């Protein structure tokens, strides 16, 4: 279990955004979780460099996976690692700020594994939420690249 002090450090470092889907914590009904980048079940530690702020949805979909399938090449690729990689090098937002687009094999595999745009489930709840967030100026995050 991660202490509140460590969680605060992780949240501040992440600018209170999920480090995978970049949803802001303040507009979610659930407090964000702390994700183990290398899952504890695979030997990952509670050290700060192995922890990421994560919305519950991304955390549940990531589970203990460290790889995903790039839908473009059908090859297994490592999932995005927020401690060693920059979000903006692997992902961009669609022009309307609603969809996350993976621009590298890692980005595409992460979008696919975590279903970052709610497309596999067909509910599109996330896209509807993002449209609302865009309309009130809460999304996408200021420094994120847009198509």
In short:
The protein has 147 residues and is an alpha+beta fold. The protein has helices spanning 4-13, 56-62, 87-90, 105-114, 125-135; strands at residues 33-36, 51-54, 67-69, 76-78, 91-93, 100-102. 30% of the residues are buried.
Distance between the termini: 38 Å
**Could you give the order of the helices and strands?**
HEEHEEHEEHH
**Oligomer class:** single chain
What's the arrangement of strands in the largest beta sheet? 1-2
Summarize model confidence as the mean pLDDT.
93
What percent of residues adopt helix (DSSP H or I)? 25-40%
User: Can you summarize the main beta sheet?
Assistant: 2 strands, antiparallel
Could you say which structural class the secondary elements and strand pairing correspond to? alpha+beta
What does the radius of gyration come to? Answer: 15 Å
The unreliable regions are none
Strand content: 5-15%
Protein name: HNH endonuclease
Domain HNH nuclease: 5-60
Keywords: Endonuclease, Hydrolase, Nuclease
GO molecular function, one term: endonuclease activity
Describe this structure as you would to a colleague.
The chain has one domain. Helices cover 29% and strands 14% of the residues. The relative contact order is 0.16. It has 5 helices and 6 strands, in the order αββαββαββαα. The chain is α+β, with helices and mostly antiparallel strands and 147 residues long. The strands form 3 sheets. A two-stranded antiparallel sheet has the order 1-2. The protein is globular and about 35 Å long.
SSE topology:
Blueprint: H1 4-13, E1 33-36, E2 51-54, H2 56-62, E3 67-69, E4 76-78, H3 87-90, E5 91-93, E6 100-102, H4 105-114, H5 125-135
Antiparallel strand pairs: 1-2, 3-4, 5-6
């Amino acid at each position: 279990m991660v202490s509140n002090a460590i969680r605060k450090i992780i949240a501040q470092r992440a600018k209170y955004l999920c480090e995978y889907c970049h949803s802001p914590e303040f507009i979610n009904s659930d407090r964000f979780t702390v994700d183990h980048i290398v899952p504890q079940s695979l030997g990952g530690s509670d050290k700060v460099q192995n922890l990421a702020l994560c919305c519950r949805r991304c955390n549940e979909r990531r589970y203990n996976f460290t790889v995903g399938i790039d839908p473009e090449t059908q090859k297994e690729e490592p999932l995005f690692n927020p401690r060693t990689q920059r979000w903006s090098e692997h992902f961009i937002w669609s022009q309307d700020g609603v969809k996350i687009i993976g621009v590298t094999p890692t980005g595409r595999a992460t979008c696919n594994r975590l279903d970052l745009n709610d497309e596999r489930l067909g509910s599109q709840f996330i896209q509807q939420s993002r449209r609302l967030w865009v309309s009130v100026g809460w999304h996408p995050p200021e420094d994120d690249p847009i198509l």
